[in-house]
Design brief:
Distance between the termini: 26 Å
Number of domains: 2
Structural class: alpha/beta
Number of helices: 14
Strand content: 15-25%
Bound molecules: ligand PMT
CATH topology of the largest domain: Rossmann fold
Helix content: 25-40%
Number of strands: 21
CATH class of the largest domain: Alpha Beta
């Protein structure tokens, strides 16, 4: 999403400048072209040479530089940018931007740009919470400036509160989200993804579960968000980090997943159910840990759980409904039966016994089955790539349905 994007990075004078060196590096690694403007105060913290080496471009520091890259540098940089990012943004630059003061290269270029502007305020908490700063931020937001709020925590001045520059990955995620929403091919879609396995309690310490790691579902959520979709990830317990720009709802049991899915369903365009859902649950959940009694075994009577996907299939209106079929035998026949019974638009048939496929692996081997009988077989590939192909298919299905 960030490949080839031109970012002007305005750096102002705050202790967080050191983090912005890492930010510039991450932006470059993500494929951006980065040109840095530093204020005089920023140069007290880090030398322009550091940003020159990291960005691969000359750093602009003055309106009056005889060796400037461009003839009228502030206008050229303002026009060049796909996005104008200010990090860290001091109270001073926010005030200047808010009031239209142009008294150095950065503030002048900011006034001249028509590119989207993202500011990342970072300062002492009292300065951040001061009415003047808050009014300036309010005015900037009303004008369409994007503001990434500071993190709360320990500050260089020794106090604790709001004012920390968010970590560089978070700033990159905010930039990705902006471009994904602007240019991504899925930007008009609300996509619900389920991931991981559900757990059914036996007693307060034991449960019935399965081997799902969540990797397949999380990959789908991640790629969908990178392509601009509004993504709700409903996930069973798993240890994976939540992908950037994805809304997450954590559940444990099948019943909880059903409730969460039904609540989101009316506002959803596409559902992708990669979760491994427990088909059965213990009839009774012991209130206390079940104790061993001599040599006696334990019999747990299981009842059937609701079938979430089948229920969504019954209620389907404009939604595209995509299921997975985790099979250990008769892959195509079993998957096709689920496709029809659950009223799906596509099912991803997954032979979970194949090497490099199914549970906990980083790759998968799947076949897409459609109601008209079409079968698309994918070779072994990373789950991210399966996700990309599946979202391509979902988009076509949605476009054909509209
Ligand atoms: O999480 P990973 O480790 O990456 O593993 C990925 C995976 C193997 C879990 C994934 O690729 C996969 O195949 N997911 C589907 C697992 C499953 O529950 O399959 P199923 O054939 O039992 O169910 C068919 C479909 O109905 C699934 O979309 C399932 O989410 C849904 N279902 C099943 C039972 C139930 N009670 N409610 C449901 O909604």
């Amino acid at each position: 999403m960030l490949q080839g994007k031109k970012i002007v990075l305005g750096v102002t004078g705050g202790i967080a400048v050191y983090k912005v060196v890492d930010l510039a590096s991450r932006l470059r690694k993500a494929g951006c072209e980065v040109k840095v403007i530093m204020t005089a105060h920023a140069q007290e913290f880090v030398a322009p040479l550091t940003f020159k080496e990291i960005s691969g471009n000359k750093v602009a520091v003055s309106m009056w530089d005889a060796n400037a890259e461009y003839n009228v540098e502030h206008i050229a940089l303002a026009n060049w940018a796909d996005m104008f990012l200010v990090a860290p943004a001091t109270a001073n630059i926010l005030a200047k931007l808010s009031w239209g003061i142009a008294d150095d290269l950065l503030s002048t270029a900011l006034l001249a740009t028509t590119a989207p502007v993202l500011v990342c305020p970072a300062m002492n908490s009292n300065m951040y919470l001061a009415p003047a700063t808050q009014e300036n931020l309010k005015r900037l937001k009303e004008r369409g400036v994007l503001v990434l709020p500071p993190a709360v925590g320990q500050l260089a001045c020794g106090t604790s509160g709001p004012g920390r520059l968010p970590e560089p990955p978070q700033i990159v995620a905010a930039i990705e989200a902006f471009f994904a929403k602007k240019d991504g091919d899925l930007r008009a879609l609300k996509i619900l993804v389920t991931a991981g396995g559900t757990r059914e309690p036996i007693d307060p310490v034991r449960f019935v579960g399965n081997r799902s790691s969540g990797k397949m579902g999380y990959a789908i959520a991640q790629v969908a968000a990178q392509r601009g979709a509004d993504v709700l990830l409903i996930t069973g317990p798993c240890a994976l980090p939540v992908p950037a720009n994805v809304q997450v709802q954590r559940v444990e049991t099948t019943q909880e997943m059903l409730t969460a899915c039904l609540s989101a369903y009316p506002k959803t365009d596409v559902v992708i159910k990669a979760a491994a859902v427990a088909d059965f649950k213990p009839r009774e959940v012991a209130p206390q840990k079940i104790k061993k009694k001599g040599d006696e075994g334990l019999t747990v009577v299981m009842d059937k759980n609701p079938d979430i996907l089948a229920e969504l299939g019954r209620r389907k209106e404009r939604q595209i409904l995509i299921g997975f079929a985790a099979e250990t035998q008769d892959l195509l026949a079993n998957a096709r039966e689920k496709l029809t019974k659950k009223n799906l638009d596509l099912i991803v048939a997954n032979d979970v016994t194949a090497a490099g496929a199914g549970f906990n692996s980083d790759t998968n081997i799947v076949k897409f089955l459609y109601p008209d009988g079409r079968v698309e077989s994918l070779e072994k590939m990373a789950k991210q790539e399966v996700a990309r192909r599946l979202l391509d298919a979902a988009l076509i299905l949605k476009q054909n349905k509209c």
